[in-house]
Write a structure and sequence with these properties.
mainly alpha; 12 helices; membrane; Brnchd-chn_aa_trnsp_permease
């Protein structure tokens, strides 16, 4: 029977994932508070976090639900925010694609920004890693993240409005994404996509129901793809000369 577990890689993943507890916990706590304020029960809040595991999409959906946006808009907006997961999956396929179906299904379930960001960096840094080592590292990263996401979502839902606003827990949201995205901006295409998406998100903030995020996401992806294509063509012309 093929083994997909390597203890040292798993422990290294756990160690690398531990710092994310500092931002995931307040992020989840804030979601729990906001969810109950929006009218969800403790059970519904915990179920939401356990099924979706996508903080940005969850906050987007909650805000739109509070604004009484049409259900279709809520779903499409949450999907637009999570379109990056499709790109994450495509990026990880060369590394984890050979896994059996049920393992790939669990990878898909636990594929979040933290597990993707650290895993891709590790796989690039150690190109000689075996499938077992890659799999173990990926699941090691998510080990300290996932339980804390569940736990603090539950705590937030239970304590609700008793958390004083002065704590400003919403700081965890931008810090989390900055910490993950910063090291990944390694090429001109990455930088261009990030710049255009931020500019569009600000420029189209006036659109109702957070539709500006959908515009920004699409514009960023198109820009990144076009810049990448231009760079490849430019490099090919240089080689030809």
């Amino acid at each position: 029977m093929t083994s997909y577990y390597d203890r040292s890689s798993y422990l290294r993943g756990v160690r690398d994932g531990l710092p994310f507890i500092l931002v995931v916990s307040p992020f989840a706590l804030l979601f729990g508070v906001v969810a109950t304020e929006a009218g969800l029960t403790v059970f519904e809040t915990l179920t939401f976090s356990a099924v979706v595991i996508a903080g940005a999409a969850q906050f987007t959906a909650l805000q739109l639900m509070n604004d009484n946006a049409p259900t279709l808009v809520v779903i499409l907006s949450a999907l637009a925010v999570n379109l990056r997961m499709a790109m994450y999956s495509a990026s990880l396929t060369p590394h984890l694609g050979p896994l059996p179906f049920w393992r790939r299904a669990f990878v898909a379930y636990t594929l979040v920004d933290q597990s993707y960001a650290l895993s891709t960096l590790e796989f690039e840094k150690r190109p000689d890693m075996t499938l077992a080592e890659k799999t173990s590292y990926f699941f090691g990263v998510i080990t300290p993240v996932l339980p804390n996401w569940y736990l603090w979502s539950l705590v937030g839902a239970m304590v609700g409005q008793s958390i004083p606003p002065a704590l400003a827990l919403d700081f965890a949201v931008p810090i989390t994404f900055l910490a993950m995205i910063g090291p990944m901006l390694r090429t001109g295409a990455h930088v261009a996509a990030a710049f255009v998406s931020v500019a569009c998100a600000i420029g189209f903030a006036f659109l109702p129901w957070n539709l500006g995020l959908m515009v920004a996401g699409i514009a960023g992806m198109v820009t990144g793809a076009q810049v990448e294509l231009w760079m490849v063509r430019h490099a090919a012309k240089g080689d030809a000369q």
